[in-house]
Amino acid sequence: MxxxxxxxxxxxxxFDIYRNRTLSxxxxxxxxxxxxxxxxxxxxxxxxxxxxxxxxxxxKAAAGNFYDAAALxxxxxxxxxxxxxxxxxxxxxxxxxxxxxxxxxxxxxxIPVFWLGKTIFDEKIGLIAAIIVATHPYLIxxxxxxxxxxxxxxxxxxxxxxxxxxxxxxxxxxxCVPGIFAGLAVMTRTEGIELLVAAMVWFAxxxxxxxxxxxxxxxxxxxxxxxxxxxxxxLIVTVPVQILLSKTPSTWGPVDQRIAGFYHGxxxxxxxxxxxx
Length: 277
Fold this sequence. Notes:
- There is one protein chain.
- The chain is mostly helical.
- It has two domains: 1-147, no CATH class; 154-277, no CATH class.
- Helix content is 79%, strand content 0%.
- It has helices at 2-19, 21-43, 49-62, 66-72, 79-89, 94-108, 110-120, 123-135, 137-142, 149-168, 176-186, 193-212, 216-245, 257-276.
- The protein starts with a helix and ends with a helix.
């Protein structure tokens, strides 16, 4: 009787999904996106030179030779390579793992894109956005290659979706979630820091507008706590990884060295200019 009851509940849930047209359409779009990406991967199996380097790094890391793996590309963020190395270590293979991660990430990208379109506009816009992501040739291509772009876009848009969700909620601590995704995005591509910068700019604008209407002091405390949660989660995710990689030739960090170098160079020129005056 218990098993029959569970089967009946499952049938009711499936029927509920069928009655929800928006959800049904979205699931069909997801299936379409997955099919297009798998088909592209089967048709075109050419490897980019970067893909070959990723596989070399993953093979060396899986063998425990982290020093040589990092030496192949000192600025490489570690997340995608670590996933490929884990697949190589357990016997799936670096190639198969990298391809699976790219395809799944490219397919799952539809979820945050659909949610953002549905939340900011309406369900129709969410479905249109999902169709564009599912069928866009460039997004299909990067989702069917051993490249980190597909995973990066998933993490970036997931962080953006949770950031929008955080602005709608009452808890400042929810900002930890987009901070985690921002950290994972930076560990995939250094451009992931954009999510953190965008949040800071948004808070700065909101604080300015709050002071304009006379509620600045009350909002300022909430904004600072939210920014603290966002930044703390980001650092908790990224800093331990940077410390581990410091024992290798890797120069990766939460902030790209090129950005840090530009900042230090700018500040140095600015200070030297003031000294001359």
